[in-house]
Amino acid sequence: MKVEMNLPSLKDIIGVDIKDILSRFNIIKIDRSVHQKVEVKEGGILCVNYNRLDINEKREFGDLIRKQAIPSNHTVIEAKAKEKTLGIKEGLPKSTDNELLEFYRTKLPPEYVDALEIAMVIRNKKQNDQQGVKELKRDVKSKYPKFGSNLCNLVSEGYFHTHFKELYESMSGEEDFEMKRYTEKIKQIVVSLPYTIFVNSYQTEEELSGFILYKLGKLQQYGTHRLLVHALNIENVKKAQDVINELETTHSVKVEYDPKRRGYMTAILRFENSAV
Amino acid sequence: MAELKIIFEENAKNDVLEIFGKNVDEEGYLIEADNQMQRVLTKKGEEIHISEWAGVTNGSEEFIKSDAFSLIVLAKKIR
Questions:
Q1: What mean pLDDT, rounded, does chain A reach?
Q2: What pLDDT does residue A217 have?
Q3: Prior bond to A259 cis, omega within 30?
Q4: Is the separation of the CB atoms in A217 and A274 below 8 Å?
């Protein structure tokens, strides 16, 4: 809404200290849709149509921006980018998330940690900003097409907060533990997410067996011939092992282990007649 | 702390580029106005397409992109 009173003349603005302008106005907006050279809008917004300024006015306004505003910590930002930045700020990782980021910083490649940080913002924002979340997810997928989307989904489901930390506890307790094995395991799981099943405590053996066969069948239809079954802790490993042993005989399922340990296991399954 | 009080609409992108002595080449990438062969780079050395340009940030006239990875750096600096 245009406020038609006390419009400043351009010389009121040009040549005045930036902090004085910003003490008079909350926002300076550069906008070609403004009909005059300058207009004041409700909410203390000073609009400047730079395109309408004459050459001297342009020079002076430019100096205001470059020689005063920028050196004194002002950012000149596109309006939608400002909204996006404020949205990200709202969802920035809090203290427990930051501890988690530090945990993974020494264990995962830098690109995974960067994506993890944005995924945490997405998780924090999910409830109240669907459009913003969509855009952030798109940015992660665009920058990291191989693993970005999958990583966001795993963060959303809490796997980085619980499961992968527990996996680290399990793996790091082994005598022959090497960090790169943990790193590679996480990367394998993230990249393979569309064809991975996580065994959980609530599934019965029958449910797990049915789910494995269902997923294997579906994946075969889409031309993917392997399924990863990932289990953590002794009970889940035993359950998965029992189910897989049975499926090997009853349904001609072939299995390789990568690896099979007492406290964790990844099994790679396929139907016997499938391509490798 | 960064301040976000100076904003521009999409229709004023070229005006802001002019203020900072930049232009856009045939492919839509930001370039130096006085050297058409020199593309503007982010701090990380990335070229910037006009469609993904977010603005100029404080201190040393650093040009920033509008993706999440660029804006999160700014988000951490604002009040």
A1: 88
A2: 86
A3: yes
A4: no
Mention every residue, 6+ apart, whose C-beta is less than 8 A from residue B16: A30, A50, A76, B8, B55, B56
Q: What single letter denotes the amino acid at residue B25?
A: D
How far from each other are the two terminal CA atoms of chain B, in whole angstroms? 6
* Contacts (Cβ under 8 Å, ≥6 apart) of A239: A199, A203, A205, A208, A231
> Token pair for residue B29?
């990438």
- The pLDDT score that the predictor gives to residue A97 is 93
Q: Which of A75, A69, A71 is nearest to B75 (CA)?
A: A75
Angle between helices B68-75 and A79-90 (to 10 degrees): 70
Instruction: Tell the residue number behind the tokens 């099994």, with chain if given.
Output: A267
| Distance separating alpha carbons of residues A36 and A55, to the nearest angstrom | 16
For residue B27, give the 3-state DSSP assignment.
coil
Nearest CA to CA, how far is A21 from chain B (Å)? 11
Pairing state of beta strands A196-198 and A74-78?
unpaired
Q: What is the pLDDT of residue A126?
A: 74
**Cβ proximity of A229 and A199 under 8 Å:** yes
Whether the predicted pLDDT of A222 surpasses 90: no
Q: Which residues contact B52 (CB under 8 A, 6 or more apart)?
A: B65, B66, B67
Task: Tell me the residue type at A73.
Answer: N
Per-residue pLDDT band for B49 (boundaries 50, 70, 90) equals: very high
Beta bridge partner(s), residue A176: none
Pairing of strands A74-78, A227-232: unpaired
Interface of A with B in 201-260 (CB under 8 A): none
> Band of the pLDDT at A4, cuts 50, 70, 90?
very low
On chain A, the residues whose CB falls within 8 A of the CB of B68 are 84, 88, 118, 121, 135-136, 139-140
Share above pLDDT 90 across residues of chain A, in percent, rounded to a whole number: 63
Q: Choose the closest CB to B8 out of A30, A89, A114.
A: A30
Q: In whole angstroms, what is the distance from residue B74 CA to residue A242 CA?
A: 52
